[in-house]
Write a structure and sequence with these properties.
- By secondary structure, this protein is α+β, with helices and mostly antiparallel strands.
- It contains 5 helices and 4 strands; from the N terminus they run βαββααβαα.
- The protein is 34% helix and 12% strand.
- The protein has a 4-stranded antiparallel β-sheet with strand order 1-3-2-4.
- Helix 4 (132-142) crosses helix 5.
- The chain binds iron/sulfur cluster (SF4) (2 copies).
- Residues 25-26, 43, 89, 91-92, 98, 100, 104-105, 108 line the site of one iron/sulfur cluster.
C-alpha cells in the first residue's frame, strides 16, 4: 500500500525501481536545492481509503465527515475515495525533517518524493470536497437519481425526528402543567 497522494516506487528491498538506492522521506541532511528541503507537506495530513458511496448511509457518513473542520474527502485518479484529515505528525521537526527517521511507519518509507503533488506539479485528486454543500452539489449533478432517493430518505428522517420532538414536548408540558387556581395538588402521603 502506498501513502495516499503519492505513488510507491520502491521495492521491498529498499531499491528504487529506477535502479538507484531508495530516497526515503522526509530526507535528512538535504541540499537546499532538494524539493524536500524544509518542505514536510506530506507530513501534514493523513488520508484513509473509504468505500465508494452507494448506500444512503454512505452519503450520510460523508455529510458527517465534511461537517467537521479540517476533514475533507477526495476521489483520486483511479476513482478510489479517501477521507483526509489535516493534521501535522508529532514527529515532524521544526526543520521539517522526520524525528523518528529510522523508526518511521512503513507508509512514510514507501512514499516517493519525485511523485508527490509538489514535485510532480499534478494534484493527487480528481474531485475534492471540502464542505457538505460541495458534496451535495456533486451528488446532485453526477448521480441525480441517487441524490433524489437520498434526499427522500433524509426527508423521512426529518419528519420522524419532528414527530418525536413534538411527542416529547407534549409529555414535558403535561408533567409540568401548573395546578388550576384554587385546586391544590394532592399531597403526598
Ligand atoms: S515528498 Fe514532496 S511533499 Fe513530501 S517533503 Fe518531499 S517535496 Fe515535500
Ligand atoms: S513519521 Fe516522519 S515521515 Fe512519517 S509523517 Fe511523521 S514526520 Fe513524516
Amino acid at each position: 500500500m502506498s501513502k495516499p497522494n503519492g505513488k510507491d516506487r520502491t521495492q521491498s528491498n529498499g531499491e528504487d525501481l529506477a535502479g538507484g538506492p531508495a530516497l526515503e522521506l522526509p530526507l535528512l541532511d538535504l541540499p537546499g536545492s532538494h524539493p524536500c528541503h524544509e518542505c514536510g507537506e506530506c507530513c501534514h495530513y493523513i488520508a484513509i481509503e473509504i468505500d465508494n458511496p452507494t448506500a444512503f448511509v454512505d452519503h450520510d457518513h460523508i455529510y458527517w465527515y465534511l461537517s467537521h473542520r479540517d476533514v475533507t474527502v477526495y476521489v483520486d485518479w483511479e476513482g478510489d475515495w479517501f477521507i483526509e484529515f489535516t493534521t501535522v505528525c508529532e514527529h515532524l521537526s521544526e526543520q521539517m525533517t522526520c524525528g523518528v527517521y529510522e523508526d518511521r511507519p512503513q507508509l512514510c518509507s514507501e512514499f516517493s518524493w519525485d511523485d508527490c503533488e509538489k514535485t510532480s506539479g499534478e494534484r493527487a485528486w480528481k474531485v475534492h470536497f471540502r464542505t457538505p454543500e460541495e458534496y451535495h452539489d456533486w451528488h446532485r449533478a453526477k448521480r441525480p437519481r441517487s441524490f433524489e432517493r437520498y434526499q427522500a430518505w433524509r426527508k423521512k428522517l426529518r419528519a420522524s425526528r419532528k414527530r418525536v420532538r413534538v411527542q416529547s414536548s407534549r409529555r414535558v408540558n403535561a408533567a409540568t402543567k401548573p395546578a388550576r387556581a384554587g385546586v391544590s395538588p394532592t399531597p403526598a402521603s
